[in-house]
Amino acid sequence: FSFFFSLKGGLKSKLLLQECHFTWSLKDDFVLCDLLNRLEEQIQLECKEARVTRAYNSLGFVQYLYGNQQEALANLQKSVELAKEHYKDSDEVLIVTYGDLAWLHYHINEFSKCEEYLRELERICRKVSGRFTYTVEVLREKGWTFLKFSNKYSHAAKECFRQALEMNPDDSDLNAGYAIALYRTTKDTPDSSDSPTIKQLERAIELNPDDAVLLLLLALRMLNNRDKTFEPALKKVIVALRMSPENPHVIRYTAKFFRQLGNMDIAINLLEDALQATPNSAFIHHQLAMMHDEIQQYLDQCIYHLDRAISLKPSFVNAVADLALHHGQLGSFKADRLFEEAFKLAYNEKKHLQAVHFLCGQYQLYYKRSEPLAFQHFMQGLRLQPESELGKLCEDKLKTMMQHRIKWLKSPDDGMVCGIQGFIHEVKGEKLKAEEFYERECMHQCM
Q: What is the CATH T-level fold of the domain 1-129, as seen in this structure?
């Protein structure tokens, strides 16, 4: 037994030094079933391309997390087979996969196999010693893995691609990854004429002229300044659709483009087409629900698509909160329970809490007729991020509610109104104005 534990401990210390899925802390920030569906979809789309090796590698890791060790092994071996086929003698592309295989054999107590892969990694390391390709290939796979697994990793992905591009600035694949990471982590304003994201998307398209998804991301970002760039943006959408008319990602982003223009019928038709190709996409179900809601028809379709989105991705915070609001619209007892679940998820996931407060505020205001609770949720939402789009919506709701209260009470010095006005000034950093309204609130309460 002492030899067994000594061997295992020695291997573990070597394994922890490897760059692979097992050492990238990927276990807690994604939903396995949703990720599994997206990886299987990616394999179908990229089955004839060299980069499909990455999808098989990630799928192997996800199968390991599911406890399916043989399926994990089969997918990792498939990744190795395809890498050798597509990349010939380029051992560097196998670094991450060999690391994953070493870890997998370690976990199933096949220590001799584990040692074999560790020796292979040592051989590759010696072979490429002093060449930047070792680091570039690791950063490449790490960046794409972060992009695929969760939006929480988008900033980390951006940093991986940035570092890799410093060593290989003209790599088309790295430029595409960096462009997508920038798109996810930045928000341009209408006057962002010198946007780094737009510049990087243009650079990536120059190096990947047949990538329809990049064209659509650029078109979407150009809509921020639609008065000047609408026509060129629309032309890019048409070109992208002609390039890849059956790619569900292309259809999805095209639908988003038309949704932002207010053309809901076109957007819904496109997303329904995309759903035929990817019926297990939680994102598409959620988008369809929101579009039916925006045109204020087919409430049953909204609820159906939201239910499907949540069944495919149970931690989909926004979908749970949206479903809660729709059940509130129906007067259903399910609304309260769903909002409780949405708040719990938002706190656990550490995201979308502001959106849940905003939606719950609407629920309390319009369907529960509870003005104090509505005020409370809009105030909480505003406090979280005053300058965000949702923060401004919360502020607008508070101001509208105050105006109605003043009109009803015929008193601008109402204690609740003064307190909320003081709060709005406080979160904006306007201390003197906040103190003035808080004093008026106190005077009203003392009367």
A: 1.25.40
